[in-house]
Design brief:
7-stranded mixed β-sheet, globular, homodimer, 308 residues, 11 helices, 27% strand
Chain lengths: 308, 308
Amino acid sequence: MFDVCLLGTGGMRPLPGRYLTSCLIRYGGHSVLIDTGEGTQITLCRTGWSFKDIDTILFTHYHADHIAGLPGLLLTIGNSGREEPITLMGPQGLRVVVEGLLRITGKLPFQVLGRELTKEEIEEQREICIGDMFVTPGKCSHGGMPCVGYSVAIKRRPRFDPERAKAAGIPLKLWRVLQQGEEAVGEDGTLYTPDMVLAEERKGMKITYSTDSRPTKAICRLAEGSDLFICEGMYGDPEKQEKTEEKHHMSFQEAATMAARAGVKELWLTHYSPAMPDPEEYLEVARAIFPNTHLGKDRMIREFKYED
Amino acid sequence: MFDVCLLGTGGMRPLPGRYLTSCLIRYGGHSVLIDTGEGTQITLCRTGWSFKDIDTILFTHYHADHIAGLPGLLLTIGNSGREEPITLMGPQGLRVVVEGLLRITGKLPFQVLGRELTKEEIEEQREICIGDMFVTPGKCSHGGMPCVGYSVAIKRRPRFDPERAKAAGIPLKLWRVLQQGEEAVGEDGTLYTPDMVLAEERKGMKITYSTDSRPTKAICRLAEGSDLFICEGMYGDPEKQEKTEEKHHMSFQEAATMAARAGVKELWLTHYSPAMPDPEEYLEVARAIFPNTHLGKDRMIREFKYED
């Protein structure tokens, strides 16, 4: 299935019992990690999930609380026995930052590939295929620092409909190829296409992750129709709204408004200010706007299953 | 007084409940921190000790498990309100590593000063004055990576002896200057020296800290007569001796042997391998060699008071 684990929920600095905001997504034996603040490897260790399966690390931006844990994490992945390359992906600046941080790792037992997102990929929200997952970046607004949110989606191949295949008179030995979404040519030269044997589209799954941003239309568009929207809620107290804006962050109210506009199914708040020890106090502020809001907690896990 | 806190006791990677080896020493309102692996700021936060008083950070070497926590720590020190400069000190390579790591901190509210130790300072174990503390580096042997141990000492001015001052006929108004260790000239031109009014030397305090090294004569010399010797014990199991040597580390037995040779009062073991979940199992191995051995634990604190 499609598993999502919110490894940490803190902003700015890790606290005892609250690690920095990071999210791990597993699907089909592969894992995508979003952000690696200081301590990410400790909270990941607590989940018991594999380090070795992490193929791709996505960065929202390069403030320390989102990337300082990278060197230690890569070393621990190395010690887990991984030898296959790992791809790091993020907005402009990736190479410079990673080159600086990797000065303390020595030689790693795998290749580290950098994939800096282009402006076009971000602005046009172009889908990037990573194994069986589809990652789409979306532009955030974080006071001049290049910053992106991501949606990670699983698409489902439509179900094969043997009745349609029979009705269309398609030779039995071509069924398998068509079922896999490829065209096939019969012995008599007839071209058969997958739509001749496949039933209607099936809904896949999609989660969207966004932190360190003012609300933007781009994030709203990115999150559209998500099964889960993980969004920053730096402050819950409406009296801190001014401070939230000044620091280029997002409040509970704003995150809930975005969730409602984007028509997501569920909202998890995260990236709490260290000055807000008990986010629970303000949950109702968000629920008044978007009822299916939940407070992110360290190592909160969701298994997504297909609806049908 | 002179307070020592072993912030973490882990080697290689931070574990839930075992942070990476780091040590904070407080004296007279100033703090010296040795090593800042990933998570150091979290364990420091648990102690309740001040971030703002950290004036100097000493690095043994630049493997990630000893320095990856630096960017986050500096940001948190900045958020504590510190504006005075911080000095980073370590062996060869300091500037390159720090320049790389600080790419993710943005502008800090204080100046970061780099003080790379020279080969002569390390080889000759030259004393460096830091406020009221005296720091001495000593050469470690860690497989080619420049690496040092440190001793941190407090010296005490000898007590003033009014009987001696009277007997020497020193004018009363010069007593204060002489007491402070300075020379003074009387109205009649007579030169008075501090030794005329001061009693015998008084023992100060000294702790020595060494990790990531094979046993060396230099560390033994550095640790000589220490009140406390904090030393790596990567493995306790005598069967892991070969592995310990291969990885350029030190075993419980070797640390205890060093402690005995250096004539220290007390030994704390630290920097345990993640593969050794229960160091307690091997404590007796070290105690058979050096009875006053203790197992370092995260946030173990010792207040040192003068003997007299």
